[in-house]
């Protein structure tokens, strides 16, 4: 019996030592630092029909629209014409999301290219319901997989790709400025 208690004492001491080592002050600081970094790494992605993920006039990358499952690595104003502004965001997955926004600050088109298909629910926003309904109808009709081309309910989506190479675009025809040729703008 004495040997058994000694074994229990050693196990209890080892557990106490490991617990104390885990909660050392520098470990707690590291844990808090990681928690703050994770919380401040605001996910960013354009959402069709809403404000761009970056302000139209900016010098530094900005994280303003939350989207689950994606983090912004780089966001830059890529260009501007008289009718629209172009912003590109590189997600942590390596996928580049390009958003085209009106001068009033409304995203009328988004495009993506990269190794991972972005979260289309986040990209399409309120238009996702129409997309999902059309995709379900296509699946029921026997059309599965890539490429996807739909034009319904005020939404046009073109998506294609395979593993590690996805690309596509989506736009709301009702939001496209009158003087913009959308096919040229998305190329």
Radius of gyration: 24 Å
Strand content: 25-35%
Cα shape: elongated
Number of domain units: 2
* Poorly predicted residue ranges: 30-44, 55-76
Based on secondary structure, the structural category is alpha+beta
Question: How many alpha or pi helices?
Answer: 5
Q: Output mean pLDDT.
A: 74
In which order are the strands of the major sheet placed?
A: 1-2-3-4-7-6-5
Largest sheet: 7 strands, antiparallel
For the secondary structure, the number of strands is 7
User: Which range best describes the helical content: under 10%, 10-25%, 25-40%, 40-55%, 55-70% or over 70%?
Assistant: 25-40%
Our measurement of the CA-to-CA distance between the termini, rounded to an integer number of angstroms, reads: 80 Å
Secondary-structure element series: HHEEEEHHEEEH
Kindly summarize this structure in a few lines:
By secondary structure, the chain is α+β, with helices and mostly antiparallel strands.
Q: Please, could you describe this protein's structure?
A:
With 187 residues, the protein is an alpha+beta fold. The chain folds into 2 domains: 2-40; 72-185, no CATH class. 32% of the residues lie in helices and 27% in strands. The protein contains 5 helices and 7 strands; from the N terminus they run H-H-E-E-E-E-H-H-E-E-E-H. The protein has helices at 2-22, 25-40, 120-124, 128-140, 182-185, and strands at residues 72-80, 85-91, 96-101, 107-114, 148-152, 155-162, 165-171. Strands 1-2-3-4-7-6-5 form a 7-stranded antiparallel β-sheet, covered by helices on one side. The longest helix has 21 residues, at 2-22. The radius of gyration is 24 Å and the shape is elongated. The chain starts with a helix and ends with a helix. Residues 30-44 and 55-76 have low confidence and may be disordered.
């Amino acid at each position: 019996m004495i040997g058994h208690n000694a074994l229990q004492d050693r196990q209890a001491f080892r557990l106490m030592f490991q617990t104390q080592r885990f909660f050392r002050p520098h470990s707690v600081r590291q844990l808090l630092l990681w928690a703050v970094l994770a919380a401040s790494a605001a996910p960013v992605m354009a959402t069709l029909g809403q404000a761009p993920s970056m302000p139209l006039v900016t010098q530094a990358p900005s994280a303003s629209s939350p989207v689950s499952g994606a983090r912004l690595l780089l966001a830059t104003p890529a260009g501007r014409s008289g009718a629209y502004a172009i912003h590109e965001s590189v997600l942590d997955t390596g996928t580049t999301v390009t958003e085209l926004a009106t001068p009033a600050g409304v995203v009328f088109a988004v495009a993506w290219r990269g190794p991972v298909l972005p979260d289309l629910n986040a990209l399409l926003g309120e238009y996702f319901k129409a997309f999902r309904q059309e995709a379900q109808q296509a699946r029921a009709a026997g059309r599965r997989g890539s490429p996807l081309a739909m034009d319904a309910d005020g939404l046009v989506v073109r998506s294609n790709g395979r593993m590690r190479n996805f690309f596509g675009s989506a736009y709301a025809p009702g939001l496209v400025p009158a003087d913009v040729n959308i096919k040229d703008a998305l190329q």
